[in-house]
Amino acid sequence: QIAVRAGFLGFAFGCGLLLSAGRSAWRHLGWYMCSLSLFHYSEYLVTAINNPRSLSLDSFLLNHSFEYNLAALSSWVEFTLEKLLFPELKQITWLSTVGLLMVIFGDCLRKAAMLTAGSNFNHIVQNEKSDTHTLVTSGVYGWFRHPSYVGWFYWSIGTQVLLCNPICVVGYALASWRFFRERIEEEEITLIHFFGEEYLEYKRKVPSGLPFIKGVKVEL
Questions:
Q1: Main EC class of this protein (predicted)?
Q2: What is the pLDDT of residues 1-12, one digit of tens each?
Q3: Which of 20, 48, 87, 126: CA 20 to 30 A from 58?
Q4: What is the reported pTM?
Q5: Rounded distance, CA 136 to CA 94, Å?
Q6: How far, in Å, CA of 214 to CA of 111, rounded?
């Protein structure tokens, strides 16, 4: 199953390259296909490098959640309908370029966070502290407390800017913001339990990185 998923992602990436190479009206869709397939494949690859013990079929994040799959399907439906009804809307190259830059920035930031955290990174929030679990505050973690979430947030919105999907740009922004607000609060409760005052001091000094999300409130 791993080989099948990896092969499928490679096929999608190749198709995206073919669409991107020409000057056709579908070039921006090619950028999107390359971005999406590379994101999911690199999630598995970096996990294999960083934390092979946690590696599984789910590390591709292709079946992240029903909501995630629904969001992807919604973006494809919007792109197709608007391509048929308003084809000129999908030819705004400067806007798609902005989206592509957001995608590249977001994915690079997320992968940098994963590599910096090393074996401390896991796709699933951990409820028990392992012997090797340490608080990472260096590198991109010196910029944001949750750089992997920041990267994913801007990557997800960037994919819709790239496709020139106005409805999904708004929908992705709101849904991603809500998801990461809840995820960060859940994760920070665990981190405070793991590291106590060390994490609270880090929390005071470094922002979460996401707009209007401060993380879990601590009663002093």
A1: transferase
A2: 999 999 999 999
A3: 20
A4: 0.94
A5: 37
A6: 23
What confidence score (pLDDT) does residue 220 get? 54
pLDDT tens digit string along 57-104?
999 999 888 999 999 999 999 999 999 999 999 999 999 999 999 999
Q: Write down the mean pLDDT value for the chain.
A: 94
Q: Which CATH architecture has domain 64-205?
A: Up-down Bundle (1.20)
Exposure string for 72-102, b = 16+ CB within 10 A, e = fewer: bebbeebbeebbeeeeeebeeeebbeebbeb
In whole angstroms, give the CA distance from residue 153 to residue 185: 16
